[in-house]
Amino acid sequence: MRSVRLHATLLALVLLALGLTSVFWQVFVRDIPLLESETDPVWIIDTRLEFDSKKNNPVKVQMFVPPNGDFVTLNESFVSNNYGVNVHKSGENRQVTWSTRRADGHQVLYYRLVLTRRFSIADQAAPPGPQFRQSAPLLGAEGLAAEALLAPIRDQSADIETFISETIRRVNDIKDDNVRVLLRGDYSVASRAGVVDLLLAAAHIPAEQVHTVRLGLQQSQEPELWLRSYNGKNWLYFNPADGVQGLPEDRLVWWSGDKPLVKIDGGRHLQVGFSVSKNEMSAIQLAQSVQPLQDRSFWTLSLYDLPLEAQHTFRIIVMIPLGVLLILLLRNLIGLETLGTFTPVLVALAFRETDLIWGIILFTVITALGLSLRSYLEQLRLQMLPRLSVVLTFVVILITVISVLTHKLGLERGVSVALFPMVILTMVIERLSIVWEERGGGHSMKVAFGTLVAATLAHLIMSPSELIYIFFTFPGILLVLVSIMLLMGHYRGYRLMELIRFKAMTKETPEK
């Protein structure tokens, strides 16, 4: 017996570990939300290109589009009229080409990108960059100015990171004559970034320009220029305008390099506009949207892959073990008497169609009338099968009458009684009548009351949408329930009802 109990305990612990591991893996590795109400931001970026073309003139427009990075692309659209569209790689960048043989007058092209950060692949690191580059010699005044700036920068820096930061700080000091020589009267951010790149090249430190779009700015904007350099392990990002290091999370890298965003052949008066809007989307809907994009193994084996009608059915089915566990606890720990274990759960499922209050009323009325009919039929000495058939037919008639009466009274909820499981009620009536014959009417009423209480509690615990979502999304939790049932299988202690029942026996008798 001890070995059997040890076997059951070990099996329960193994199932508990498997169930919890499955849930933790989905939550912390696959980033599946614990709450159905959880939402995540989704950004919609619209790029509008406007230009004029000559009549019947061929046009070719090339524009950089964002590469796959720290975000997940949910949708990418290229909107144009009579233009061919081709997306290809251009170095480390992606580029779209619109082309047409004949264009006339004002032209408008659109590029829309819908993306989110959630469910992005965390270990998808950017490819490494160069760590050394040759520099072109600087002559004349520019060479002297560059050397004058580089000397203190070398003294006040310890590595690539501090070298670049110090370079940006000094180039932003436009009062310095050496800086003014290199800027040549152009103090724009792009010009300062060019000077920083020039000084870094002189120090053999590779760097490149990156152009970003701010997702947090919910209005029209222009790409923001940043610099980045590879230190042998990671890419280091710097803002050439103020020297801030580290690319903010709300920045999307659009393209890298010093080439312009758009190149157009056959057009003129080009205007490019960016607009960003932010929406909130259910995290679980995001997960389903990302599934075909990333081939996530969790979703290929999940209940969300089933047809919608089947999903609705399984949302009910997966809650049955929770109701069974509740009945097990009520019977083994509390001592509540019911008509078996599964019957209260079936009645609880029936309450889903009628609502709880209507279900209790209908259960009470139909069961009471059915028991009365069953008692009457007993006097006719009928066999069980004919007697059960008559009771079933009576239940159908009673349900029909109740539906019609409630409809006439304007109580439309009563019409749903037609969906109440007639077979379940019939079997309940039959079993209660057997208990009545074997153990008396009082015990039969006690069992009926216990069944109704258990069914009510099971309905309450099986109905919350939060629990339905958890059990449907994380089916591994069913193994946790099985482990609890196994541990309860060898419980031989007192029940709560028995402690109350035998409480008088624990009182000390007075000495005579």
Write up this protein:
The structure is a single chain. Helix 2 (about 140-155) packs across helix 4 (about 175-185) and helix 9 crosses helix 14. The radius of gyration is 37 Å and the shape is elongated. Among the domains are: about 1-30 and about 480-500, no CATH class; about 310-475, no CATH class. The model has no long low-confidence stretch (mean pLDDT about 80). The longest helix is centred in the N-terminal third of the chain and has 28 residues, at about 1-30. The protein has helices spanning about 1-30, 140-155, 160-170, 175-185, 190-200, 285-295, 295-300, 310-315, 320-335, 340-355, 355-380, 385-410, 420-440, 440-460, 465-475, 475-490, 495-500; strands at about 40-65, 70-80, 85-90, 95-115, 210-215, 220, 225-230, 235-240, 250-255, 260-265, 265-280. It contains 17 helices and eleven strands. Strands 1, 2, 3, 4, 6, 10 and 11 form a seven-stranded antiparallel β-sheet that branches. The chain is of the alpha+beta class and about 500 residues long. Helices cover about 50% and strands about 20% of the residues.
